[in-house]
Amino acid sequence: MPTKISPMTNYYIRKLYRQKDPYLSQVEDMGDDFSTFMDLEQVLKSLYSGGEIDLMVRQLETLVQYHQGLTAQSFTPQPQLKEVEQRIFAILGESSASDQGANAPQPAPAASPPKPTVTVDVLLKILNQLQESSTTFLGAAITTNYLQAARPQSDWFEQFQIQRSQPVTYAADPAQALDEQQKELAQKWIKGFVQSCSQVITKFPEIVNLPQLLGQL
User: Does this model's pTM top 0.85?
Assistant: First the structure.
């Protein structure tokens, strides 16, 4: 039998929806059964199958606990709160604003400006952002294995040190600029890692905004 969303998590997520959409509060005020109006378990069943549902329920439980911890702090970090809320809504099938505008008519491309220099430090920030997001869902051990497995087989990339529960570091000067081949391999590393994570977390590319990350390289 699939894992059920706990009553506390169910209530908390619906509270987040009410805060985001005042109409849902009006539905409750009119006396309608809000549980019927938005049945989270039915939403998950419509989006996922079999073991995926159990995984998504566990992720929702973890994210809600994280969100509660953030709101309990004396200074509530709004950007982190918004990020966690977006992850919750993404699991429940809500597209981000960038996805909603994906099919909008695009203006004619302008002449491309010279590409900015990409340094090792930029790549490290991307890798550590991905590591943090993956650890939230998959844990430190799996995240570390995926990072190591996707890393390009190159002496230069061996200088990136990957240790469990530690930020990715670089053995030489992080201000060093990447050449075109290194940038191409760095993109393959990121894509390979995200692809591995998406085999478990189907919406992981959306959660981390893969196109935006690749655009930094």
Answer: no
